[in-house]
Design brief:
- The chain is an alpha+beta fold.
- The protein contains 5 helices and 7 strands.
- Strands 1-2-3-4-5-7-6 form a 7-stranded mixed beta sheet, with helices on both faces.
- β6 and β7 form a beta hairpin.
- α4 runs parallel beside α5.
- The termini are far apart.
């Protein structure tokens, strides 16, 4: 008898909406009943992001347990760039998983010939792993709190 193995990284689809929503709700502040109204993981936000094909999640390959996810979308004609990817939100059990998810979005963006990956620094608290990804990929702060990582040479 073989055990089920789960892919570690997958593109999120609407099929995972309840999984992501439930996981995020369980990690939310129980003292704030209104958090779910404005959270990036609220149902209507997930319905938007999960159908676009740019959001990803990581699972434990043995148990299938959700370990983290990133919500992202392509943005056309932003900051003079034809094609960019906007990271709206990342949540994970560990900073290392967050960094891996961001790095995966950057790598996929490069493979798909997107020009930039953008995200607000305040949404991703800096830690050593994420800082290394940003520095290693040539990321820079633009505006006041936005980070930009070029995914093309130009």
């Amino acid at each position: 008898m073989t055990s089920t193995r789960f892919p570690e990284l997958q593109v999120l689809s609407l099929n995972e909406l309840d999984l992501v929503h439930g996981w995020s709700r369980a990690r939310s502040n129980p003292d704030d009943p209104f958090e779910g109204w404005t959270a990036p993981w609220r149902t209507e936000s997930l319905q938007h992001y999960l159908k676009l094909g740019w959001s990803m999640f990581k699972r434990n390959p043995d148990t299938g347990e959700l370990l983290g996810y990133v919500l992202a979308q392509p943005v056309l004609f932003m900051r003079t760039q034809t094609q960019s990817v906007w990271i709206e939100y990342v949540d994970a059990l560990t900073p290392a998983i967050k960094a891996e998810l961001v790095d995966t979005i950057v790598r996929v963006s490069r493979e798909k010939h997107m020009q930039r990956v953008l995200f607000e620094a305040r949404l991703l608290p800096m830690d050593q792993g994420l800082g290394e990804i940003i520095r290693g990929r040539g990321g820079r702060v633009i505006e006041e709190d936005m980070i930009e990582i070029a995914t093309t040479k130009g």
